[in-house]
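Complex record, two chains
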Amino acid sequence: MKINTTINGKKHCLDVKANAMLVDVLRAAGFKSVKFGCGEGMCGCCAVMINGKPRNSCITLAGLAEGAEILTVEGMGNPENPHALQQAFAESGSTQCGYCNPGSLIAAKALLDSNPNPTADDVKDALDGNLCRCTGYVKRIDAVLTAAKAVKKTSKTVRGKK
Amino acid sequence: MLKKLTRFYYPETIEDACKYLGSKDEKTAVIAGGTSEALRQDNSIEALVDISRVKELNHIRVDSSSIRIGAATPVQNIYKSTDLKGPAGELLKTVAGKIGSTLLRNSITAGGNLAAVFPWSDLLPAWLVLDAEVVLRKGKPKRTVPVENLLNEKPAKFMAPDEIIAEIIVPTAGKGTGTSFCKFAKTANDYSMITVAALISIKGDSIVKARLALNAVTIAPVRCHEAEKMLEGKKPTAQLFAEVATAVAEKTEVRKDFRASKEYKREVLEVLVRRSLEEACVRAGK
């Protein structure tokens, strides 16, 4: 069957098997930032934003994404022009193997979208579904708090220029 | 899994959703968040009816006498709701926040746990102690039934094939009522091993209404009617709560799984029941 979705701002019509999971469909379509981890919604590697809400794509049937807007890490930024969160993750050393980073970044972005002034507890709550088995959690929490400040600064300067 | 699945339907109204479900030509099933459907080993379903875009199924409405929650409302919305207040609202928020993780709470829906009943569903004991009712719709016609009836008879049997859960109604509780929820799991994100929900209303110096419900430690959610009778009409004392907790732990049929032995769970259950009752009692006095 065919599904129509907007991925990172661009419209896509994808030919999928009806029982395919969104994670597999996104990876096949070239969005390799989306990682397959546990396959049962426990680790958060596969998190993508669906209509603004971070969800596990490994237990979301692709059919549920019909008409939806999806955001993956590719849509957040790239090495030349990284998102404040990506920058903070890199600079704080929140990356060792990096496998959990895409999911964590999506969950962190969802937090900053809804709450620009998070506390450390807010970060822990928002990232509670993203397991990290090598770096640990302290650096990641610091990174999100740093990025929150950076996002606020840039939005202020942008507004100032206008 | 879902090997025979060929298509999805995307109805925008409850009536349309029920039409697809009533079809004799193909085997259909309802899907909203999809967490249980994705893991279910069902190879007979040919089409899924996605009710997540039906607007009238996605809401949290609060008035002076009741809280109404649409069946397809993600539990994250309950957890983050600013409208839910009072003993009933606070209990729902607490419980919703303890379900899985943020990523799962955005998928899991309020009604999904009632359609597919699992031992680890945290909301079920809360619905039971709050005397929640479920609105079932079959196109336009609807019926309102206590959650307890639906759970006791198993939703799949209780509901017609073209009937869907539309809304859950919870009566709000006023002053003199306290609620509490205890969850025991290996980690904050793991499946619950024991869940206990309690509600206590106090008038003067005696308990006028008591509700106690368990899940996870049992195969299916249960309301502890005998324990409630032991509590009602009595003075709330530490000794009474301890006696009730002992009785509940003794009489409960404990589910076996690999996480812990029955004996261990029984001991923890006793502590959690006592703690829930004490906590609900303290809150009732506030």
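Note: The interface with chain A takes residues 1-3, 5-8, 10, 31, 34-35, 37-39, 48, 50, 52-53, 74, 76, 100-104, 106-107, 188-189 of chain B (CB under 8 Å).
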